[in-house]
Amino acid sequence: xxxxxxxxxxxxxSRNVLSGLDLQVHAGEVVSFIGSxxxxxxxxxxxxxxxxxxxxxxxxxxxxxxSKIGRDPNPIRRRxxxxxxxxxxxxxxxxxxxxxxxxxxxxGKPADEANEIAKSLxxxxxxxxxxxxxxxxxxxxxxxxxxxxxALAMNPEVLLLDEITSALDPELVGEVLDVVRExxxxxxxxxxxxxxxxxxxxxxxxxxFLDGGRVAEQGHPKQLFSSPSDERTRQFLRRVNF
Amino acid sequence: MLDIKIxxxxxxxxxxxxxxxxxxxxxxxxxxxxxRIFVIAYIDIMRGVPVILWIYLIGFGVPGVGLERPFNSPLxxxxxxxxxxxxxxxxxxxxxxxxSVHESQRAASRSLGLSNTQTMRFVILPQAIxxxxxxxxxxxxxxxxxxxxxxLIGPIEILRQAGIDKAKFxxxxxxxxxxxxxxxxxxxxxxxxxxxxxxxRRRTSATRVR
Lengths: 242, 210
Prior knowledge:
The complex is a heterodimer.
Chain A: E1 3-12, E2 15-25, E3 30-34, H1 41-48, E4 56-61, E5 64-65, H2 74-77, E6 80-83, H3 95-105, H4 111-124, H5 140-153, E7 158-162, H6 170-184, E8 189-193, H7 197-203, E9 206-211, E10 214-219, H8 221-226, H9 231-239
Chain B: H1 2-26, H2 33-48, H3 51-61, H4 74-100, H5 103-111, H6 116-152, H7 154-161, H8 166-169, H9 173-204
Helix pairs in contact in B: 1-2, 1-4, 1-6, 2-4, 2-9, 3-4, 4-6, 5-6
């Protein structure tokens, strides 16, 4: 099992966001999370790469409990990349430097090698001419693609995509989703929180519907979208007109 | 000329001290809690008392304990007083800059595996310092003004050298009393402001990253 969540509980103040969530993800699997806003999709992803400490339960990566209190999160975060809804590029750095910062400072790669990695990845995703631009000079779609490249440059085993198209104009969504489509075959394990039902159906090996801080229903996208068994899933899909 | 000399060597020292204080105060390491408390107390005390009073207290007080030349110069200790007080003022400017960098920048940096220190150095500080340049300039202008206060105590140094050693026998009680009164006003004021700001931040900002 690549990634496992056991009875994960997380609350903010008096609000329980995750309440005893269980999940198992195989290596190379693409799992999407759907659910109304506030259902815990984002929190779930942030707990996986330890940005949020969990209150109870355990997160396991390759069978190793990474959520233990006092454990240094940095070596684990190198193995788990995340792309955020709001891109979160570093505005004072060029595209190249955004990508190479962690390569040189965290992985200790020499500058030449880091630049080479940045260049070839940017080239792969059609962004190489933006290598010297600054984030504010790019469109939202370009910024998000750079953010994906920044996460990929670390060569993570697991990639978390947190509503990566929610902050984009509709005509820019496609270019970002194309990047994810290309990644699907590469063997990387992906956890995707999304509102794009069509995309979730197309890309996922499995779709999980979150409700009440747990996985209320999960299954193959075809099955879950066409004949959901849980009443809450049916209601949700009706609400989003899917 | 003397003013410019004092200004020139105090400024880098002030900036360095201020950055150090601001970083210590913004640290999230639970082990550094005592350091944070110390820094907060230091900033409160230094800011709470007028600069002129510190210059008198340190500029005349420290040489008054009977140091040898050249360490008995009120000018030297007056400048030290300036560095200590302005370091505290400007630390708060830097802290405001650090706090103004959105939490998501820290999240992005930490998620790439950068440590807290690396995040501060490469991601937070470069953005924070850019943002506080205008208020920083403001403080450096008033520093220039206050440098004059130090050079004011220069002639008295000459008197000392002439053998009229007044400072040694000066009674500091009124100065200390004045300093305490100032602190009684400024510390509650600072705490209230801090409380209101923290409450505001809790209401408006995203959750904090470990």
